[in-house]
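# nightly structure sweep
# worker-07 picked up a monomer target from the shared queue
# config: single-sequence mode, recycle default, output format = structure tokens
# input follows
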Amino acid sequence: MAIREICGCFYNTSTEYYSLTRHYLPQVALSSHTKLYSIAFTTTLTQTFFNSTSDVIKEARYVFPLYDGVAVTAFTCTIGDRTITGHVEQKEDARQTFEAAVERGESAGLLESLPLGVFATTLGNIPANASIIVNVTYGGELKHDAEIDGLRYTLPTSIAPRYGEYPGELLQPNSAISSRGMRITVDADMKDSAIRKIQSPSKEHPISVSIGNTSGESSQATPQASKASISLALGTAELSTDFVLQILVDNIGSPKAILEKHPTLPSQALMTTFVPRFNMKASSPEIVFVADQSGSMQGSRNKSLVAALTTFLKSLPMGVRFNICPFGFDHEFLWESSQPYTKDNVATALAFVQSFDASYGGTEMFPAVEATFEKRLGDMPLEVILLTDGQIYEEGRLFDLINRKLKDEKVDARVFTLGIGNEVSTTLVEGVSRAGNGFSQFVRDDELMDQKVVRMLKSALYPHFSNFSLEVEYAEPEDDFEMVDDDVANPEGRKDARGADGEQKPSGSTEDLGTKEPISMFDESSELDTPVNRNPDDRYAHLPVLPLPKILQHPGADLALFPFNRTTAYLLLETGSSQTPVSVKLRAQSPQGALELKIPVHVAEEGSSTIHHLAVRKLVHELEEGRGWVMDATLEGKPVKQNSRSSEIAEREAVRLGLKYQVANKWCSFVAVEDGNSKGDHVAAEREGGPLNQPYNHNPFPRSYRAGGGAKRCRRTFAAGSLSPPAPQPTGAPAPPGGSALFASSSFSPAAPQPTGVSALFCKRASPSPAPRAAPAPFQPYLTSQPAHMMSNQFYPPPIPAAAAAPPPLADVDRVRGLIALQEFSGCWQWDSAVFALLELDIESVGPTVERDAVTATATVLRFLTGRMAAFEGVWEMVVEKARAWLERETTIEQRKGLDRLAETLLPANGSE
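# output follows
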């Protein structure tokens, strides 16, 4: 693994003897304030640095991570006593605007998107002995968490090392900078839904929870069960692992359709979200489990992976074909092609999995996934479940492979991804599942992956859906509904793309050439230096015109629809119509029939543009990954994706959306300058839909890759069957030891203590191992777990029902896994001392009148799992289905009633014998 880490706010100087010397500015404060809603979040990240020198720093630069798919919507810099607010420009224009301001001696800031979820900030003309406060606001969707069947919020705090070379600029870590951590505040407002549980699965981030009010509300405000404020119990967190919250909320899966009217533009955005619930007959596909066995998976990760794979193999139903592909520096398959689900094949697969030791060296993921597609059985759907810690740089190549297989070659397949560990790449995990029409989940080193693997398996067994469409319905009778997918798929089919006779006119048509004055072949007034382009300032003037659809939709017809897993779709209505949709109808086709859902539209409060930002980011994300409506459109009778300029056409559309809605992306950056002017002064025009007038230039960070790295795997042989920004800080504060000035950071909570000292940079570096921590206590209802200083004058929701209780200790997880491993292929358990040991029963103490057979043992295990191990239903549910089916085949109804009474005697409900 090539370990290079990007960190530090630094500036460079040169001397007579050294061409370049890097100097780091002390970071004196780091904080974040997040607002959680039922569908999305908004985070304001505040980073404060200090120029302790007596000189003006012409340019300083630092980078930080953001979660995959977030929309950066605001950028503000306070440099000394001057505050400047950023706006979005095309990437090269923003760079030119920044450099021009710096040359004029003005303070300026530039925020750019780099590859792999990394953003870079460049600061210009930092005054001597002055503080620098940078506020970045971004938002995104809250992820669905299968472990608690609730919401998951992640705040990335480090840029983890990866396998390979970073496709851009790399900085070495600065070991001289001390670490004091980060202050985190999260406010949750779920509107009409009561909050049932909030927890952090990370040992490094113990939290304090205040229920009833958010941190910005008055203490006299009426408490509500839908509101909460969360902060770090220790005040700050070290930046070694990402901060994760899990939230369980009432009715979070209910269908919602929210319409937002943009506060300044003639545009409407519609967000539809729900957790599908339907029963369909399971299919019998080919399932290939692609398991990361690189060196970074060693230890607890590999142990959890082996346990999850065992559960996976025990849970597979009859009729499927399956295979396993471990990978690292190279890869291998258990079988040359997927095999039927039989007793002997399962035994072989279990022995294969037990031999996993994460000894395959580096992480070469691409060849393993490519081989999985090449070895597929062509006459049945393919389901790929990829488990990885995601530590690679070469992501774009993998996305292109999956896009090509599914979109171009029309392979009937889906790809699901489970990101493992504290340093997993969200851009990889999310990107693979998007390209593969599956979904992704994340599990930290100290979380259980069994339940999430089983959820993915259940989704993989549902049939593939197609022809997803949305119908927007209006109240006006003359235009009662509008099909979205037709307009998106055929944008050239609109009236304004046709001639008077209704026939399609291709770009560059010669129909009217005969009526124009011929161009002289020898014009003495022409000059060699005359620009060829119509407008030298228009970088896209050479591209063909592609008419815009009236409505932009994300995702398209290939929506990934899975029961009990959140589905979200967006519509961007840019026509400026005064009509307000009253409902939206979702439709899809399956092999078992059509699906349909009608959802009434709720109009959001005025003044917000959150849904617009989320919709634009989703649309642009597709364009960045070589997909989206542009690629599906037609140009001159051919798909745009077959056009040699398709990437430039996609870039043009991404720039149009970024400028109009002020959202940063791969081709658009935020720039902040003192006078507020930009090159060409075109931003206002763009927000009103004006033309694009910027010269084209290439991305300044070319991609580069390096194969190899890491230890080569050891060859093995296998024998089958064995929020508000803080005020500017005062200058002139006394310097701390070492010469760096210190300032107290602003806090989003008036009662929060103020930190001192130099806080950590957004980087990950080697550090002494922390002292061992005691395992955190399981989450308890607020009434019993609230910190003492929060017990008075607080509102608490009703006690958590038994079904939502926290999981038992880890030892119980091992007992569940042990029972799953001992289940016979048929679905039963044998009367065996190993089984009764896991049930904590003495097999010899059972009365002589009890039949000592598989029927009795199976009934007893079923009661144990469904009763005492109810918290792990997501792990055992599919093996229990098998056991019940076996029991029904072997016994009558009256016999099963007697077995239930016997099992109740052996395992009383209160747990006492």
